[in-house]
Design a protein that fits this description.
Layout (H helix, E strand, L loop, with lengths): L1 E2 L2 E2 L18 H11 L8 E4 L5 H5 L6 E3 L3 H13 L6 E3 L9 E7 L4 H13 L1 E12 L5 H10 E6 L6 E9 L8 E6 L2 E6 L10 H9 L8 E5 L5 H9 L4 E6 L2 H10 L5 E5 L11 E6 L4 E2 L2 E2 L2 H13 E12 L5 H4 L5 E7 L3 E7 L1
Parallel strand pairs: 3-4, 3-6, 4-5, 6-7, 12-13, 12-15, 13-14, 15-18
Antiparallel strand pairs: 1-2, 7-9, 8-9, 10-11, 16-17, 18-20, 19-20
Helix pairs in contact: 4-5
Bound molecules: S-adenosylmethionine (SAM).
S-adenosylmethionine binds next to helix 7 and strand 13.
GO molecular function: N-methyltransferase activity; nucleic acid binding; S-adenosylmethionine-dependent methyltransferase activity
GO biological process, one term: methylation
Pfam families: MTS, RLMG_N
Length: 360
């Protein structure tokens, strides 16, 4: 696509090796087109849901604030900017007050409508009275709830016609509403786990996680442990209760997940990491790595990312250390794990889930 005579080669720069996957969608293109059609360009533009930097690259000259939710997103946007010799953009996380009041925002609507609501909460709390928000989504992903959320925050919500199966929702006349803190509390093992809206498994503690916690094998000699893809931190915290002297690291790609985990587990020997790659850890660092690994990325299913993480786990485990994984059985990780580890044992399974213990 070209915009104001410019054309960029936007790439994904993610851990997946599948080159057929696209770095932007028709919804992103529709947002860019809507921006190009504006008679008067805004002073302070906010961009939400720009997964790999398509909007950030094309609109960089308007000095947007790009609100990121993932470390992998921030890295991909930076890589695309760098590849096109564009100076880095201003970033914000979705929880902090913004430096400048926005008067315009573009939102690629995320799959999690709780996260969409969190975006609107930040936008309405950090914008001028005359803010316009243009949201885009693929028509097959529309749900009435999306409209309902938009109507909670704006008096006028207008839908566009569909173009390439994408549609816009234009929001104007923001309502005067009281700011809400969008945090849910989920109970497990007599503890309330808090999580920001938009974090994995919003309604209940994930069933795979519960199955995992019932079958995890931990040992008093596990001194340094990593909860990889830690979400709200439940796995790391349940281990911490058993081994209060162990050093526990929790890492997640999602800013909101890491912020939630910080609410649930703290201590001198607890370390939180907002990252998507194990390259931040030394070789042979851990006795034990536990994970309920990601394989859903918005509407995409991609097992290349967990497979990449498993290879990183092998490097970061001590000799004799082990990686324990819970997974949906159909993913059949065993065939990928066996060539890597000296032994791969199934320590629990039921109709749906399986727990592997892989020894280095
Ligand atoms: C299936 S959830 C598990 C969350 C939590 N451990 C639990 O059991 O409730 C997977 C998590 O992986 C995170 N994630 C996705 N890609 C990641 C990556 N490359 N590195 C670390 N975490 C990642 C997601 O943000 C999500 O929180």
């Amino acid at each position: 696509m070209d915009f104001e005579g410019r054309k960029y080669q936007i790439k994904r720069y993610d851990l997946s090796e599948d080159k057929s996957l696209k770095a932007w969608s028709a919804a992103d293109e529709y947002l860019l087109q809507a921006f190009a059609d504006l008679e008067k360009k805004p002073n302070q533009l906010g961009i939400y849901g720009d997964r790999f930097g398509f909007l950030g690259c094309y609109l960089h000259s308007f000095n947007p604030t790009v609100v990121f939710t993932q470390k992998s997103q921030q890295k991909a946007i930076d890589a695309n900017l760098k590849a096109h010799n564009i100076p880095l953009l201003s970033y914000s996380d979705p929880l902090s007050p913004l430096k400048n009041e926005m008067d315009f925002a573009l939102v690629n609507v995320p799959k999690s409508l709780e996260l969409f609501q969190l975006f609107l909460e930040q936008i309405t709390g950090n914008s001028s009275e005359d803010i316009t928000v243009i949201c885009a989504f693929m028509t097959r992903h529309f749900s009435p709830k999306l409209l309902q959320i938009a109507q909670e925050y704006f008096d006028v919500t207008e839908q566009s016609r569909a173009v390439k199966k994408a549609r816009l929702l234009v929001l104007t006349k923001k309502k005067n509403i009281v700011k809400k803190e969008l945090i849910t509390s989920l109970n497990y093992n007599n503890q309330d786990y808090k999580q920001y809206w938009g974090v994995f498994s919003a309604q209940h503690i994930d069933y795979a996680t519960q199955f995992f916690l019932e079958h995890l094998e931990i040992d008093d000699t596990d001194r340094c442990i990593l909860d990889l893809a830690s979400g709200n931190g439940i796995i790391g915290n349940e281990i911490f209760k058993e081994l209060p002297d162990a050093e526990i690291h929790l890492m997640d790609d999602s800013y909101l997940a890491v912020s939630s985990a910080k609410l649930n587990i703290q201590g001198e020997n607890i370390h939180h990491h907002f990252n998507n790659e194990l390259t931040i850890f030394d070789d042979n660092a851990f006795y034990l790595i536990v994970t309920n690994p990601p394989f859903h990325f918005e509407y995409e299913i991609n097992i290349q990312i967990p497979l990449h993480l498993f290879k990183g786990c092998l490097r970061c485990l001590k000799k004799g250390g082990n990686l324990q994984i819970v997974a949906n059985k159909h993913l059949n990780y065993k065939i990928h794990l066996e060539p890597l580890f000296s032994s791969v044992e199934i320590i629990a399974e039921d109709k749906k889930f399986i727990v592997y213990k892989c020894i280095k």
